[in-house]
Amino acid sequence: HGHGGGNFGGGGPRGGRGGRRGGTAGAFGRPGGAPRKGRKSKRQKRQEYEAMKAPKVVGGVKLPDGKGQTIRLARGASLADFADKIDTEASQLVQALFNLGEMVTATASVSDETLQLLGEEMNFKVEVVSPEDEDRELLESFDLQYGEDEGDEDDLERRPAVVSVMGHVDHGKTRLLDTIRHTNVGSGEAGGITQGIGAYQVEVEVEGKPRKITFLDTPGHEAFTAMRARGAKSTDIAVLVVAADDGVMPQTVEAINHAKAADIPIVVAVNKIDKEGASPDKIRGQLTEYGLVPEEYGGDTQFVDISAKQNINIDQLLEAIVLTADLQLELFANPEMDAQGVAIEAHLDRGRGPVATVLVQRGTLRVGDSIVVGDAHGRVRRMLDEYGNDVEEALPSRPVQVQGLDAVPGAGDSVLVVEDDRVARQIANQRNARKRNALQAKRKKRISLEDLDAVLKETQELNLILKGDNAGSVEALEDSLLNIEVADDVVLNIIDRGVGAVTETNVTLAAASDAIIIGFNVRAEGKATELAHQEGVDIRYYTVIYDAINEVESALKGMLKPIYEEKEIGTAEIRQLFKASAVGLIAGCMVETGKVRRNATVRLTRDGNVIAEKATIDSLRRGKDDATEVSAGYECGMVLSYPDIAVGDQIQVYEMVEVPRD
């Protein structure tokens, strides 16, 4: 047997080599045979390589196959960003999406759902990074962290409590703050509503020691929910003002919910106890239902009966705030670290440029520090306290007005001191780019290919540009406007917003996009008005926020197409059919309810099924005479525009009536 030739890998001289490898020799006595266990053959390798290169076909376009790989994209990323990450052409992605029924340009921001859907089609797992996470990563790349560890306990010092005064409109919040700081802000405001956010520090003596409390003046009107929600996050204690003669109102409940969501203790100030009909006990009973049980009823909420107008019990209220802080909170901060805090409010001052009210939360803020506030940056050129005095340094819980930023930050933006202006600029620029993308993705409703035609015919768009005196007001106005409920066929787009006077740039943008400019507590600069007249741009000015909301709502409702509702006029049954050479088939009918009218619209049903939806009564006769209408109980003959009728068919006569919108 040992002489088998090389062909079958026997013991021949060449076949033997195959044998030594522990397998049969290949054809023609070549070495090889079965590959070693765990090793892939050349053919397998080639097939896998080809498969790796094989593109995924999405919407008829060949795109890379992600093999389950994870791609991180920022919220509001564009198709160009996506293409960049997966090393393909953006035009390919645009084409694929177009074929899938969505029309998006390469540089436009895309919604999270679209990014994830496209990713799934290509076997990529798309992780849309939230702005918060992205911001944290951005700061970490510069070795920074907002809310970072404040060091050892030895470094910590007691800081004053930061208090938000909340409650329903007209219950006396501003009057209370006025009484506390002995100034009068309320009377100088349009409509008497607090429309900017201020912050003030007051001193009170508790058990013989001077203690400080910082008050945030959060506006009370419901349009400021967004701002107030942010206000609650920078607050240690909420003072809930309830009028003793009025009771718990919707905004009182809203304020309680905000405070509970932010997990902060509440001190209740029962105001207007000097008024007729005041019933502080009733208020205590009402608030118990919302989980605020007074100490005298065995709960842990301090209630103080006050009169802001008569200056009654104000000191007791301040004392209650300090005691609540001492009992329920550990208020300590490290004054030695680089300052961090929050911008409570910001506006553009004609003489001083962007001015932000900053609440320092930890560390000490000094004149000359390089800071970044949201997507604005700069150097602290000057700091002022609530009385307009210069301040060189601000300790934790101290509110100050800061000058020296390059732009107006948003209300609620975080404040960070960084090592130099270069770092501040880099962080601000990256945040700015991200904000622009996210805003673009959020603002515009996407139009898909199927409904593009319908949209062009049906959709009514109202484009708005908002300008206001401070960031808080603009944000509140924007939130309120975007929450106006309108039908699907009307779209509200806020294409730009900013702080300060209406400029020529705003007017040019409005002209290009058919937008209306809303100015809240601001006017247009000289040449902007002229340009607006030339371009036919509508600029509307408001000083009270509800007026702006109401007018925009009316405008949106005016743009809606009328709604029509069907109203039944009468019913009839076909009893006989007659043929007449001149007019065709005549239906002999009995009118069963209401009336039938000539030229009216009818619906024909047979055995409960609709056979004709919009037929008309072309002629109507009663006996031999023409009739305009025939009432219930009478017989008539009619010729219908629908010819295929039979005995027993039911005729419903109806008309479409316009319904007024709510």
**Class derived from helix and strand content:** alpha+beta
Strand percentage lies at: 25-35%
Please list the strands of the largest sheet in the order they lie side by side. 7-8-6-9-10-11
Rg result: 37 Å
Key attributes of the depicted protein:
662 residues; alpha+beta; six-stranded mixed beta sheet; six-stranded antiparallel barrel; 17 helices; extended
Explain what you see.
This protein is an alpha+beta fold and 662 residues long. 29% of the residues lie in helices and 32% in strands. It is extended and about 110 Å long. The termini are far apart.
Q: Quick gist of this model?
A:
The chain is of the alpha+beta class and 662 residues long. The strands form eight sheets. It has a six-stranded mixed sheet with strand order 7-8-6-9-10-11, with helices on both faces. A hairpin with a 3-residue loop joins strand 13 (340-349) and strand 14 (353-362).
Task: Please describe the topology of this protein.
Blueprint: H1 15-20, H2 42-53, E1 56-58, E2 61-63, E3 70-74, H3 79-86, H4 90-99, H5 112-121, E4 125-129, H6 131-141, E5 157-158, E6 161-167, H7 173-181, E7 198-206, E8 209-217, H8 225-233, E9 237-243, H9 250-261, E10 266-271, H10 280-288, E11 302-305, H11 314-328, E12 332-333, E13 340-349, E14 353-362, E15 365-366, E16 370-373, E17 376-384, E18 393-394, E19 399-405, E20 414-418, H12 421-443, H13 449-458, E21 460-468, H14 471-482, E22 490-499, H15 504-513, E23 515-520, H16 526-535, E24 539-542, H17 545-559, E25 563-580, E26 584-597, E27 601-606, E28 609-622, E29 625-626, E30 629-631, E31 635-640, E32 650-659
Parallel strand pairs: 3-4, 6-8, 6-9, 9-10, 10-11, 21-22, 21-23, 23-24
Antiparallel strand pairs: 1-2, 5-12, 7-8, 13-14, 13-20, 14-19, 15-18, 16-17, 16-20, 17-19, 25-26, 25-32, 26-30, 26-31, 27-28, 27-32, 28-29, 28-31
